[in-house]
Specification:
By secondary structure, the chain is of the alpha/beta class. Helices cover 32% and strands 18% of the residues. Keywords: Kinase, Transferase.
Length: 425
């Protein structure tokens, strides 16, 4: 029989896009099951690769644009114009953690200014519906930089403009809204975000995500206080009576969600926005096995991460889920996965692991599939003297529609390409 395997990973931060991860997993699967029918469904969560994936899925295009990077220097970035005329701004493309070298990571100094520049460029291009994808950020400025790029002035007690970065928000004395881009009033600004992330409080974004952006514990507390002050100022200037402190999604991308919500952005659960039109539940339900993956599996996985969402939908369809991850942290077993495995065969320096991510992922998929086949053979083995049965306990089903072929694969988000014949070096 031919197995049907749905491959639905997220990207692996700073190493593989979702598409590259799906292709690497597919390579490992086909080493073991060369006749498998693979349905590749690279999933984006608003972070790296979102603009490219949505442009490909809708017949749109990427528009290159030079903008201000997270460190204040110009970076080559882009936004997407979709087939329906709307635009996608991927914050990771201009303010992502991957754009901040490890030795310069300081979330108190990095800025989202470039995000505002990309929104402005999308409006210049004629878009009146702009989707901002939040994820993989290297910032913790509450969206202050983005608002500055959109014409808002943030002033200290002397009337001077605040410098970039979340740390400077402690000195904020006034918010001058007179210069805000008037086109925002007529545009639809949608923010695809993780609803579990909030701006302030014990689970506030500075405390939860500050360490991975380079903040020591003391700086996390300083940034938390700065964002508390920022939330009060935003509320007073833009949105009296609106909760910008603990409403779902306000902490997205270092608080960018709160900043954009203050100027009329609608904070929407990212999977409701980004998975629309993929028919994901049905496609997972047609599989015998679902394989997902991400850079890390831990307690955050169940809180709005791709493997957690895939596990939830596959569970509804009654299909087992295997997850492959770069690292396994505390709480990895709480995401509803049937099995999970690290792609590292042993201790590896992080730079080497990032460089070898595609090959490690393909090898891990191969190892995991061989283990799966051992289990199916054991389950199918008769108790009498007749000998072992053929692997597999599920009977063949009708072929899945569109993009699924034996021994090859199709992609939900972009045109398919041939599976590599060997792991990249």
């Amino acid at each position: 029989m031919s197995y049907r395997v749905a491959v639905a990973p997220s990207g692996f931060k700073e190493s593989l896009s979702a598409r590259e991860a799906a292709e690497a997993i597919a390579e490992g699967v086909l080493r073991v099951l060369p006749d498998a029918e693979l349905d590749l469904i690279p999933l984006v969560d608003g972070g790296e690769g979102t603009a490219e994936a949505l442009a490909a899925a809708t017949g749109g295009r990427l528009v290159p644009y030079t903008a201000t990077g997270p460190l204040g220097d110009p970076v080559e970035s882009r936004f997407a114009l979709l087939g329906d005329g709307s635009a996608v701004v991927e914050m990771a493309a201009v303010a992502g953690l991957a754009l901040v070298p490890p030795g310069r990571r300081d979330p108190g100094a990095t800025t989202t200014y470039g995000v505002g520049e990309l929104i402005r460029a999308a409006l210049d291009a004629g878009a009146r519906r702009v989707l901002v994808g939040c994820g993989d950020s290297g910032t913790s400025d509450g969206g202050a930089g983005a608002l500055q790029a959109l014409g808002v002035r943030l002033l200290d007690a002397s009337g001077a403009e605040l410098p970039h970065g979340g740390s400077s928000l402690t000195r904020l004395a006034a918010v001058d809204t007179r210069g805000i881009d008037p086109r925002l009033a007529d545009a639809e600004l949608l923010v695809a975000c993780n609803p579990y992330n909030v701006l302030c409080g014990e689970r506030g974004v500075a405390r939860v995500f500050g360490p991975q952006k380079g903040a020591a514990p003391a700086q996390c507390e300083e940034l938390s206080a700065a964002l508390e002050h920022w939330a009060d100022a935003l509320t007073g200037a833009f949105a009296p009576g609106v909760d910008l402190r603990t409403a779902p999604g306000t902490g997205a991308s270092g608080g960018l969600g709160a900043g954009l919500a203050a100027v009329g952005g609608r904070l929407l659960p990212r999977f409701e926005v980004l998975l629309d039109g993929l028919d994901l539940g049905a496609r997972l339900g047609r599989a015998d096995l679902v394989i997902t993956g991400e850079g890390a599996l831990d307690a955050q996985t169940v809180r709005g991460k791709v493997p957690g969402e895939v596990a939830r939908r596959a569970r509804e369809a009654g299909v087992p889920v295997l997850a492959l991850a770069g690292t396994l942290g505390e709480g990895a077993g709480e995401a509803g996965l049937d099995a999970y495995e690290s792609i590292a065969p042993g201790p590896l320096p992080l730079p080497e692991a990032l460089d070898r991510a595609a090959g490690l992922l393909a090898d891990a998929a191969e190892r995991a599939l061989r283990t799966v086949l051992v289990g199916t053979r054991l389950r199918a083995r008769p108790r009498g003297p007749a000998g072992p049965a053929c692997p597999g306990t599920r009977s063949p089903r009708g072929a899945a529609p569109g993009g699924v072929v034996v021994g090859r694969h199709g992609s939900a988000m972009a045109p398919s390409s041939a599976v590599r014949s060997h792991a990249p070096e």
